[in-house]
Amino acid sequence: MTGQMLIEPAELAAGGDQVVFDCRFSLADPAAGRAQYRAGHVPGAHYLDLERDLSGPVARHGGRHPLPAPAAFAATLAACGVGPDTPVVAYDDSRFAFAARLWWLMRSLGYRPPRLLNGGYRAYLAAGGQVQTALPAPEPLPPAPAGNFRGACDIHALGAAQAAGALLVDAREPRRYQGLEEPIDPLAGHIPGAINRPWQALSGEDGRLLDAAGQRAYWGDALDAAELVVYCGSGVTACVNLFSLALLGRGDATLYAGSWSDWCSHLDPPEA
After folding, report:
1. pLDDT tens digits, one per residue of 178-229
2. Which has the closest alpha carbon to 66: 167, 183, 149, 163?
3. Where are the domains of the chain?
């Protein structure tokens, strides 16, 4: 399963018949990822922007990074030559934070899920990978018919799932989960009943995913829950947790797509 979901830097550096997506992004500086891409990227890689390509328009509810419209997302993929069965590789330089969002979106919409680059762009460079600054010439396809994203829930379905006994997992940093700090959203804390499994702890400082034993230790008894729902701040980094769960055979876990930022939007005014 690992070889079907991850790709090692040396294999990517060797090339192959696949479409590559650069998903580098910075929440603190939304223009930084595209600037990094233009300064150098994996040869042939197309750039996907978290806010322009991997998210939809922000509204009162739905969180800071709502899911894109399925048809618009399918058109974005098609413009880069990606159809439902196209082999795809995705990478970032943030310990899977943004590449995993693409993985989840494609998988959820019924596409062949991309393999994620283990260790990210820095590991690719360390493996001797070549760098390109020229923009690739896309080979567009007609957009595939788009259904709906599967495996996601809104706040109402979340409540029903929790009432039925689902285990809710908060993927944010411990200090945000504990309500000790909240740098982005208007309310600190976590959704009642949620346990904390920080997404960063699934990889080492080198950006490589923990091995299977390390991931099982990270999840502990949560792996045995009958139903799992994962959220983060806006439905992005929770996808790292969902990627790990799928690797461990729990591909049935659900994403609360709007996550904490959507939860806060339903409290008017926000409550402590």
Report:
1. 999 999 998 899 999 999 999 999 999 999 999 999 999 999 999 999 999 9
2. 149
3. 2-126, 152-265
How do residues 36-68 score in pLDDT, each as one tens digit? 999 999 999 999 999 999 999 999 999 999 999
CATH of 2-126, one of 3.40.50.10330, 3.40.250.10, 3.40.50.720, 1.10.150.80: 3.40.250.10
CATH class, range 152-265: alpha beta
Q: Calculate helix-pair angle for 212-219, 238-247, nearest 10 degrees.
A: 120
Does pTM surpass 0.85?
yes
Residue 267 has what pLDDT? 84
Q: Please state the rounded mean pLDDT for residues 133-143.
A: 94
Residues belonging to the active site: 232
**Alpha carbon distances (Å) from 236 to 24, 54, 91, 243, 262:** 13, 9, 14, 12, 13
Q: Do domains 2-126 and 152-265 have the same CATH topology?
A: yes
